[in-house]
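Backbone-to-sequence.
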């Protein structure tokens, strides 16, 4: 586990914890095969599918010289094992990750490294198929959405992804526009739409 004060891995703590929702008790699961470089990574999203597999992509390691990774780590809660896929994608942190009904995870936004100009184009949609364990890319079309890291995302019943917030930050946070945008994942290519609602310009800033 990362020490939040010194950005290092605390060897006396576990990297994984499990919470029993019935009795609110925490336990430390014994997961084998964990990639050492994955331990201590931050700013990555976890997605779990119906087969009790947790998908963890990329992230940044402060203990490894601020390295941003592009590998996919899969934790199988049925076998309590971890697998790092040999295939790589664009290193990424601070993105959104949304699982669709077709078993594909949609990755949007984020940064590829810690340089000033490393924000990933919001039109570049990276897609991970959890069935075939393979990557594909799609160039989205539609309204102009500014690059950002740290946004939130939710999926609607009609398979539209709504993103909210995020921005760019080097020395100070700069909010990206628009604050709210939607991505229609049911069309090919996927399409960005900015809601026609003046209230979005007054939405509170989050990152």
């Amino acid at each position: 586990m990362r020490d939040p004060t010194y950005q290092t891995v605390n060897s006396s703590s576990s990297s994984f914890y499990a919470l029993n929702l019935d009795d609110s008790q925490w336990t430390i699961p014994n997961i084998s095969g964990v990639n050492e470089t994955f331990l201590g990574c931050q700013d990555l999203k976890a997605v779990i599918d119906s087969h009790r597999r947790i998908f963890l992509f990329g992230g940044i390691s402060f203990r490894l010289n601020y390295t941003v990774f592009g590998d996919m780590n899969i934790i199988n809660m049925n076998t309590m094992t971890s697998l790092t896929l040999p295939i790589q994608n664009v290193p990424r942190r601070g993105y959104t990750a949304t699982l669709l009904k077709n078993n594909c995870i949609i990755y949007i936004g984020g940064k590829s490294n810690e340089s000033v100009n490393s924000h990933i184009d919001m039109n570049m949609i990276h897609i991970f198929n959890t069935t075939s364990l393979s990557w594909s890319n799609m160039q989205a079309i539609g309204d102009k959405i500014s690059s950002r890291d740290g946004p939130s995302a939710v999926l609607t019943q009609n398979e539209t992804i709504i993103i909210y917030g995020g921005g760019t930050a080097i020395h100070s946070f700069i909010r990206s526009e628009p604050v709210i945008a939607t991505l229609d994942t049911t069309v090919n290519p996927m399409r960005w739409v900015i809601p026609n609602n003046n209230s979005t310009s007054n939405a509170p800033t989050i990152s």
